[in-house]
Amino acid sequence: MPPGEFELIDRYFRPLDRPGGRRRTDVLLGIGDDAAVLRVPPGQDLVAAIDTLVSGRHFLPDTDPRSIGHRALAVNLSDLAAMGATPAWGLLALTLPAVDEAFLREFAAGFAQLAACHQFALVGGDTTAGPLTVSVQVLGFVPQGQALRRDGGSPGDLVFVSGTPGDAAAGLLLERGAEGGVVAPPEQAAAAQTLRQRFLFPTPRVALGEALRDLASACIDVSDGLAGDAGKLAAMSGCGLRLEADSLPLSAELLQVFGRERAVQLALTGGDDYELCFSLPAARLAELSGAAASGDCAVRCIGVLEAEPGTRLVQAGQPLSLETAGYDHFSPRG
Ligand code: ADP
Ligand code: MG
Fold first, then answer.
1. Confidence of residue 330 (pLDDT cuts 50, 70, 90)
2. Tens digit of each residue's pLDDT (9 = 90 or more) over 281-313
3. Same domain as 238, residue 92
4. Tens digits of per-residue pLDDT, 66-89?
5. Which residue, 72, 112, 138, 275, has most beta carbons within 10 Å?
6. CB atoms closer than 10 angstroms to residue 328
7. C-alpha R_g of the chain
């Protein structure tokens, strides 16, 4: 007889309320009751986010379940990182076509491994039957009044991005392979594998977000393409934006497999990077290297906020046009 819902929750999800085997003292009641009881430390603001991954839309149907578990949490931790928040707890709503223990074991392992890195406790959830869909809601905190926001930038602030944008979009094309994607020649197998991993196992920039709390004027995480997301930060800050394509931090792997021109387009329009894009008052530039070091992540200046609305992309002093706009689920293309 296949295990029942309660047995499955017990086996695969209850252990996740002790990240890395350690119980959080701020979880007064975790998985098992009707709801979790959590204690927010005094002097902190609670920060909440939720993101859903749908099979066939956010991941390919035959994706490694370990990657699905990792990404479901990573995309949410990235939202907390963009707010400068420290992750604490979360809830998981899982819709599964059928009880598949091999899937659940790998999914939970991918989730647990990333959760342990951030002492993130799963404190509840919901399990239902239906088309494969994963929703994770995350909660975290920031010292009162210190959350990073999208709307704090001013004209003249420098615009930065972390990591190497474009890799994840390249990785997705390589994952698709002959089915609408890209097949790399054998001599590029190692670079292609690195890019695939960047799509399958993105690193949320939590430590960088924390380090930027007191420094960045505005911040957003890059999920839908750098140009579009940086443009959102600028617009919400009541500014426009100038981006220098020549300043983009492109990875050696992206350049090797896709060439410079395509790499620039992928870095500006590809989704799924989960890097941070932030603005910084020029007067505080000297403080950034310390923040990047404690965030354990390289950052690069790619442009500047300007008073004139709109986004101006520049390459070698000339205007650059984009092949596609950022991802929008409800656009005719999406
Ligand atoms: P209820 O019917 O009261 O909503 P459930 O039977 O759905 O309760 O869940 C029992 C307990 O298991 C609850 O504490 C719930 O939060 C937890 N739970 C259910 N599904 C999951 C899941 N996928 N991940 C983590 N916890 C879960
Ligand atoms: Mg109940």
1. low
2. 999 999 999 999 999 899 999 999 999 999 999
3. no
4. 999 999 999 999 999 999 999 999
5. 275
6. 12
7. 20
Protein residues within 5 Å, CB atom, of ion ligand 2: 34
Q: How many domains does the chain have?
A: 2
Q: Name the residue with tokens 């047995």.
A: 7
Give the whole-angstrom CA distance, residue 230 versus residue 169: 17
For position 315, what pLDDT does the model report? 96
Q: Are residues 211 and 128 in the same domain?
A: no
**pLDDT given for residue 61 in this prediction:** 87
Closest residue by Cα to atom 21, ligand 1, is 125
Q: Which ligand lies nearest to the CA atom of residue 36 in the structure?
A: 1
| Domain boundaries, position 286 | 158-319
Same domain, 98 and 182: no
How many Å lie between the centroid of ligand 1 and the Cα of residue 30? 10
How far is 228 from 68, CA to CA, in rounded Å? Answer: 25
Pocket of ligand 1 (CB under 6 A): 9, 13, 31-34, 92, 94, 122, 124-127
Q: Check: CB of residue 37 under 8 Å from CB of residue 156.
A: no
Its pTM stands at 0.94
